[in-house]
Amino acid sequence: MPVEKNKKIRNLLLSLFFDAVGMLSFTLPFLGEFSDIIWAPLSAWGMTRIYKGRIGEIAGVVTFIEEILPGFDLLPTFTIMWCYTYVFKRSHKTKMIEIE
Questions:
Q1: Rounded distance, CA 26 to CA 99, Å?
Q2: DSSP code per residue over the chain
Q3: How many structural domains are present in the chain?
């Protein structure tokens, strides 16, 4: 497997794992929302490590806000970021190359 494909799969698995951990707070009524105080900065840090550069920093801020606000844990921000990075962004680049 090429290195890029390994990275793509690794990032997908990490994204699914981080989203699953973020959703765990729903399993503990009342106590779960307090766990988000610890999880929000950790997930933001994880986002910036998985997705590098300015886009990763922006996604880290979005993830922090999503995790710290009560009731928003259902949004799979890591998986959405993976789709943006490896599906939507790539297809946009492909279209740009075809046009040129």
A1: 46
A2: --HHHHHHHHHHHHHHHHHHHHHGGGGSTTHHHHHHHHHHHHHHHHHHHHS-HHHHHHHHHHHHHHHHSTT-TTS-HHHHHHHIIIIIHHHHHHHHHHH-
A3: 1
* Per-residue pLDDT tens over the stretch 43-82: 999 999 999 999 999 999 999 998 888 777 788 999 999 9
92: Cα within 13 Å, side-chain hemisphere: 7
Structure-block tokens of residue 22? 């973020």
> Does residue 14 surpass a pLDDT of 50?
yes
